[in-house]
Amino acid sequence: MNPAALDVPAPAADNVTPEPRQLTNQDRCDACGAQAYVEVNIASSTLDENFKRKEVPLLFCAHHYNKHEPRLVMSSAVRGISVDEREAFWERERNRTRGYE
Ligand SMILES: [Zn+2]
Predict the structure, then answer these.
(1) Residue closest to 78 by CA, chosen among 38, 20, 48, 51
(2) What contacts 90, CB < 8 A, 6 or more positions away?
(3) Is 0.90 topped by the overall pTM?
């Protein structure tokens, strides 16, 4: 028996939870190009190799997410919200406008 055949690499750990995705200021709203704070997964019309619908991310700024939220939550194409950082947006707005009130 060839001992090298036993020298298989350890299987990759599959119980590691991936880091939650964080949006950066490189992520821009698909509607207006402002900084994105919400990422929504939408089922696309294309299928993957398992004939499942591919999911494509749509990015929204806080303004456009709030504007489209009523329709998004009703839509069967929406597979989930993967990132919602609007709290960080409101926190930034509160800090930005502090002193003007
Ligand atoms: Zn926008």
Answers:
(1) 38
(2) 62
(3) no
Q: How does the average pLDDT of the chain come out, rounded?
A: 86
d(CA 12, CA 1): 26
Nearest to 44 by CA among 29, 30, 54: 54
Residue 21: band (very low, low, confident or very high) from pLDDT cuts 50, 70, 90: confident
Q: How far is the CA of 92 from the centre of ligand 1 (A)?
A: 16
Distance 31 CA to ligand 1 centre (A): 5
How many whole angstroms separate alpha carbon 44 and alpha carbon 77?
Answer: 8
Distance 70 CA to ligand 1 centre (A): 16
